[in-house]
Amino acid sequence: MNNIKTTNWIKSLTDQAQKENWCVSCGCTTCGAEFFRSSLIKKCFQNNNLPFPNKTRPSRRSKNLIIVDLFSDDIKFCVKTISKELANLNAVDIDQINTGALRHIFQEIYGRIYIKLIQDILGDSPAGYYLKSMEAHSKEREEKYRKHEINNSPKILEENRRRKKEFKEFKAKAHAKRIIKYNKFSFIKKYWFKFKMKMKKP
Ligand SMILES: [Zn+2]
Questions:
Q1: pTM here?
Q2: pLDDT (tens digit, 9 = 90+) per residue, 27-77?
């Protein structure tokens, strides 16, 4: 065991990103935060004294390879390495790390098949709690989205259209009925008026 306190590399990477104003935005449509994401996986190999894999998936990115450009074994290695480092963050680190950057790191590794692996590595660490709160939050959002989906499903939309159409027809019928009634009434009125005029005449 060594007692030397080394700086957590996730902490130093996110600090550097903040200091040098890297884009860390999840879903950035301009740069895709590729430089940050690329640095994240490069660090995984560097810090384990491993060369960056020379075999990657064909990618449209020229130099900023990101996790999805790697082959599955390398992806798994990165997910493990990042999760282990996240698990070593203390609560103060988590507080200090740029929230956007931290969320982005979680998003980067949180692929369906690795959820269990990440949860196991993070366990009850501060990052583990952070993940749990993120999951709860996204579950809530998903729920809201699901409700929105239900309200906008083709079936419901069709139902709404049908109801609207029926109501429109109902209104038109009611309108037509009113007109007939009104016409009848005005017909009677007209004759009543004529009759009255006739009676008034000397
Ligand atoms: Zn960007």
A1: 0.70
A2: 898 899 999 999 999 999 999 999 999 899 887 666 789 999 999 999 999
Q: How far is the CA of 42 from the centre of ligand 1 (A)?
A: 19
Q: Is the dihedral of CA 159, 165, 169, 172 positive or negative?
A: positive
123 backbone dihedrals φ, ψ, rounded to 5° = 50, -130
**C-alpha 187 to ligand 1 mean position (Å):** 75
pLDDT per residue as tens digits for the range 142-190: 888 888 888 888 888 888 888 888 888 888 888 788 777 767 667 666 6
Residue pair 101/17 in contact by the 8 Å Cβ criterion: yes
Neighbouring C-beta atoms of residue 17, cutoff 10 Å:
22
Distance CA 189, CA 183 (A): 10
First-last CA distance in the chain? 127
C-alpha 30 to ligand 1 mean position (Å): 5
HSE on the CB side for 22, CA within 13 Å?
Answer: 22
Distance 25 CA to ligand 1 centre (A): 6
- Between the CA of 143 and the centroid of ligand 1 the distance, in Å, is 28
CA of 97 to the centre of ligand 1 (A): 19
Q: Which amino acid is at 90?
A: N
Q: Which pair of tokens denotes residue 12?
A: 């130093």
